[in-house]
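Page 42, continued from yesterday. The earlier attempt failed because a stray header line got pasted into the input along with the sequence. Redoing it now with the clean sequence only.
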Amino acid sequence: EHWRSHSQTVAALVKDRAVKLVYVMPHWGTSAFSTQAKQPLKTPPAKIENKYSWNVVPQISSAIAEIFEAELKSQARIIDPSYALAMRPDCRNDYLHMQRGALVHSVLRLVQNVMMKGGFNEPGPRARATDRGA
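This time it went through. Structure tokens are written below.
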């Protein structure tokens, strides 16, 4: 399948690199979801819904990312697709779970882009790919 191709590309890019961990920060859910593909929102929602404590997901994700960076130093890279995925209340199986194709075309491509554009061969600062309004 298409996702395997992307996964293999990412695996090949990571092989023999200084980076040993890529942490993809999780997205949060939405009550106004759709299973059908639609136009993405023009801007991310102004407020994260409190349902199931989704509003604490960014704080928890950031805390985990900071621990990885502190412990692994330059061997960790953080990818944050959460705002980009918040703009996609469509392509979901339910209020939280994205359809596989939506994740392949967003998250794995973010990982590939960050890796191909540098920062993965040498130690360096956090490589964060966050799309907050595109």
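Notes: The helical segments are 2-14, 57-72, 82-86, 100-116.
Reminder to self: strip header lines before submitting.
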